[in-house]
Amino acid sequence: MNASAEADIKSRSYEYKPCPEQGGAQADHPVIVIGAGPVGLATSIDLAQSGVKVVVLDDDNTLSNGSRAICFSKRTLEIFDRLGCGQPMVDKGVIWKTGKVFFQDNPVYEFDLLPDTAYRRPAFVNLQQYYCEVYLLDRAKDLPNLEIRWKNRLVGLEEVKDSVVLTVETPDGEYKTRAKWIVACDGGRSTTRQLMGLESKGNIFKDRFLIADIKMPAEFPPERWFWFDPPFHPGQSVLLHKQPDDVWRIDFQLGWDADPVAEREPEKVIPRVKALLGQDAEFTLEWVSVYTFVCMRMDKFRHGRVIFAGDAAHGVSPFGARGANSGVQDAENIAWKLRYVLDGKAPDSLLDTYDDERVYAADENILNSTRSTDFITPKNQASMDFRNATLELARDFPFAQRHVNSGRLSVPAVLATSALNTADIDAFGGILAPGAVAADAPVEEGGRDGWLLDMLGDSFSLVIFADEKSDVRVPKSEELAEFAQTVGPLSVLVVAPKGGLKQDVPKGYRVVTDIDGHAAKRYDGKAGTTYLMRPDQHVCARFRKFDAKAVRAALLRATCNA
After folding, report:
1. What are the Cα distances from residue 396, in Å, to 102, 160, 440?
2. Which residues contact 474 (CB under 8 A, 6 or more apart)?
3. 371 vs 369: CA distance, rounded Å
4. Phi and psi at residue 124, in whole multiples of 5°?
């Protein structure tokens, strides 16, 4: 992308338009989403592409200021694939999987986040948040049942019997509108949360970090470099990341006593950058910010007909890239559940499982983020001595490397305790137990290469493994019809080995070939092995053979219909 196109995206704004309610029209929307950041847009697209009408309210009409969230994980990219906008993000982003840790001026060790390369998406892609938002907005404009209202600021809300009444302020004055459900994705300073008299609770860590996004041509590899106590910034830590457009993210630990306003000034930032890069380094400052570590969350994410997601619900310190990634995972969790409730396929108690599952995931992220913060910023001399001794040992002893914590990088939570899971009754190997996110694998369909996750769709899915030697039990058409009456459409995917199938598969079932056996290995997939996948691609049940009664019971449990 040339400099002109890059500048055009960063300065892009969106048009405010009056809505029908401002002219006196009555409206009762199924879902209103508050906030058009990555989490709000992901929620809205997920709902809209599955047939739910959505309105998004945003109090601004521009993209995010500065790079902000930049590290998007493999799981998040897989979600963006399902939303129809993953490929442009990967095409634009900086792909990376290697991290290196340094202590003072010596390398300690390096790690590989995805040594197995037989996945569609890389471990991470670095991409400025404004690009992420652009690609989500490009996808959103293709969905006729998704309306984004710019410069529409929420200033009041009241829950009535079966909906929520919102008061919205615009350049043309206020109007009122109604929605069955509200999803609040309006960030760490959530207006929705404030209007409801709710709060997030947790820890504010007494340290400050400077973010300096600089633009420069450089030959550094696309890796994550983290220094503890480097000679160019003694007693503190530094992180370096590459972004698109020759932009580099540098995080400098400052200490609690640093002045957050003065430290943003160029005369303070430039000497720090030159200490790292060399006095002759040529660069320009793109964006500068100072932040404080925060780990906190709301007590509950569902409050009646208002549901909180992303930073509005929980916040973590940035080391580990757990903020935006967990927010997008919130989005995919709530979207399918709202759809099933709106369609009458599930009671609204299904939405309580959003609260259970995503509070569990938030606590996991907060725990990891807190541990990282404690290691990066020791609070006393004993902690500092322990950290430095660990770093010294890690140069030569792998056991010590496991204790070095420069930020445990984002992975999706395994929702092992979810009430939607059906416990295993058969013995399985591997990690894809109920509650885990489905694993991708290369497959072939009709002579064309593809990927397993692309075959699952937006409904519940059965994945059944077969072989070339024997017949395996697959659902009959009347069984699928019975399932559909209960929970809606259920797709069937048969995974065959390279040798093909002995049996004929009913028309309408997809059959894919397991290239090189990756799917069978990851799912411990023997002949007859059957997985039931939720619409958000989490495993909710697995069996060694298809049994219609067992699958029906698992479906009822997974939709709170049991």
Report:
1. 13, 64, 35
2. 464, 492, 494, 505, 506, 509, 546
3. 5
4. -150, 155
CA distances for 84 relative to 91, 123, 140, 212, 416, angstroms:
14, 19, 10, 32, 28
Asked if pLDDT for residue 3 goes beyond 70, the answer is no
Which is more confidently placed, 54 or 377? 54
Categorize the per-residue pLDDT at 439 as very low, low, confident or very high, splitting at 50, 70 and 90.
very high
Helical H segments across 284-440, by residue range: 323-342, 350-376, 381-394, 398-401
- Judged by DSSP in three states, 429 sits in coil
3-state secondary structure of 139: helix
Strand-strand pairing, 98-103 and 153-159: unpaired
| Residue 379, amino acid | K
For the segment(s) 12-92+124-199+296-367, the CATH number from 3.90.1150.10, 3.40.50.1100, 3.30.450.40, 3.50.50.60 is 3.50.50.60
What are the tens digits of pLDDT across the range 102-161?
Answer: 999 899 999 999 999 999 999 999 999 999 999 999 999 999 999 999 999 999 999 998
Long-range pairs, 162-169, Cβ under 8 A, ≥24? 163/28, 163/305, 164/32, 164/305, 164/306, 166/32, 166/57, 168/57
pLDDT higher than threshold 90 for residue 40: yes
Q: Looking only at Cα atoms, what is the longest distance across the chain?
A: 74
Contact 95, 122 (CB under 8 A): yes
pLDDT average, residue stretch 518-537: 96
Dihedrals phi, psi of 334, to nearest 5 degrees: -75, -30
pLDDT band (50, 70, 90) for residue 66: confident
Domain ranges of the chain: 12-92+124-199+296-367, 442-558
